[in-house]
Inverse folding.
């Protein structure tokens, strides 16, 4: 058995003095890195590509108006769409009885009653609470008589 390759299978010799027209892997990676660096530097140095109107619109978070009853009092407030029910109660209404424990719904420190059902307020978006009745730990008391949970 012969180990010689047929003449058609052997590539023709290349002349090292002639540059190849096809990019090599090394030149492709180097070019991509250089172009990416220029684009990144242009964004850092030149600032944003958005005009002032678009930049203002992108910076302003979408908000919604929410009406709900909290501890027997009807309240209406405009909140960011990403605001949790817990943050609404604590930051907007000053009801600090519900605590932010784990912020993942595992500990139960944020539990409130929504239409009579217990809910983890840290996992519930405030905008989903349109028209509901929310009862916090502060709302469980009957006048001056404290509830056993309090």
């Amino acid at each position: 058995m012969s180990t010689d390759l047929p003449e058609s299978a052997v590539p023709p010799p290349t002349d090292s003095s002639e540059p190849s027209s096809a990019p090599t892997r090394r030149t492709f990676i180097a070019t991509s890195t250089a172009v990416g660096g220029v684009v990144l530097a242009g964004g850092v140095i030149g600032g944003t590509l958005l005009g002032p109107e678009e930049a203002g619109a992108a910076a302003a978070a979408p908000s919604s108006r929410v009406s709900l009853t909290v501890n027997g009092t009807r309240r209406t407030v405009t909140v960011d769409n990403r605001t949790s029910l817990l943050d609404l109660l604590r930051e907007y209404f000053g009801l600090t009885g519900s605590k932010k424990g784990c912020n993942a719904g595992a500990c139960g420190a944020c539990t409130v009653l929504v239409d009579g059902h217990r809910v983890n307020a840290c996992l519930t978006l405030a905008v989903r609470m349109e028209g509901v009745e929310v009862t916090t730990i502060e709302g469980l008391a009957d006048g001056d008589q404290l509830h056993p949970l309090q």
